[in-house]
Write a structure and sequence with these properties.
The structure is a single chain. It is built from 8 helices and 18 strands. The protein is α/β, with parallel strands linked by helices. It has one domain: 4-Layer Sandwich (Metallo-beta-lactamase, Chain A), CATH 3.60.15.10. The chain has a 7-stranded mixed beta sheet. Strands 11-12-13-14-15-16-17 form a 7-stranded mixed beta sheet, with helices on one face. β12 and β13 form a beta hairpin. The longest helix has 11 residues. The radius of gyration is 18 Å and the shape is globular.
Length: 262
């Protein structure tokens, strides 16, 4: 399983330091070549030939930093594909997309364009804790603890499994399920805020480095790597210092553009 990090931050952000510009992309991951995990970043990093290879996009929830690229993806693929891209999530997330995003007010309804028989996208609702198989992957959605309906994922192929937390505060069910996965090789866990903002993290349904490590311990598999993502860019320096202070070689922050292989 190869995972390309298209975006791993909790915002779409740009800054200049020492005269050099740095862009931070919101959440988006490409699994192998045809499956995307989150859609905060797709069009800004993938070429048109890469975009036309997409078959499935799994969404954890419907906040903008996880879905914004769907708008530009749909118009970019217009007239370029012969198959719809399948948007996969739980019913509550699909309902938000139907009613508030692709609603012919905020954005055209690309489930009916260019025609209802041949749309650019279609929706697939999934049930929690029931695996589905797509593109040689088995994907299981597990409810997590965010301020809107949200899920994490356990993603498996023939050689490895990974757990992806989605946006969440402290939770239990996903770690219990992941600890039972065969060949668990890595955990991607959010860490949005520094530790001193733990109350803000609780209120907004997010984690800090310290809390992320506490959640990771619930997996009871301390030898696998812990990759932190969804850092809010204005707090990135503080989060980096706190990760370093943990002195745990299994933990590191993800970076836009890197490739993970499991």
């Amino acid at each position: 399983m190869k995972i390309k990090v298209l975006g791993c931050y909790g915002a779409d952000f740009y800054e200049k330091k020492n005269g050099k510009g740095k862009r931070y992309n919101p959440s988006g991951f490409l699994i192998n070549t045809s499956v995307a995990l989150e859609a905060g970043t797709l069009c800004g990093t993938l070429t048109l030939p890469q975009l036309t290879q997409l078959r499935y996009i799994f969404l954890s929830h419907a906040h903008l930093d996880h879905i914004q690229s769907l708008a530009f993806l749909t118009e970019t693929l217009f007239g370029k594909i012969e198959h719809p891209v399948v948007i996969v999530s739980i019913k509550e997330v699909i309902d938000v997309l139907k009613n508030h995003f692709f609603n012919n007010r905020l954005w055209p309804d690309f489930t009916r364009l260019p025609s209802p028989e041949n749309p650019i996208i279609r929706y697939q609702e999934i049930s929690e804790e029931t695996p589905i198989e797509v593109e040689a992957l088995k994907v299981t959605a597990i409810r997590v603890n965010h301020i809107v309906p949200s899920i994490g994922f356990i993603i498996e192929d023939d050689h490895a499994a990974i757990v992806f937390s989605g946006d969440t505060w402290m939770t239990d069910k996903i770690w219990k399920a992941a600890s039972q996965a065969r060949q668990l090789k890595g955990a991607l866990v959010e860490a949005s805020f520094p530790d001193q903002l733990s109350e803000l993290a609780r209120i907004s349904g997010h984690l800090t480095p310290k809390l992320a490590l506490q959640e990771f311990v619930k997996l009871t598999q301390p030898d696998i790597p812990l990759y932190l993502y969804h850092m809010k860019p204005p707090y990135l320096g503080e989060i980096q210092k706190q990760i370093k202070a943990l002195k745990n070689k299994q933990i590191r922050l993800l970076h836009d553009g890197e490739m993970l292989q499991f």
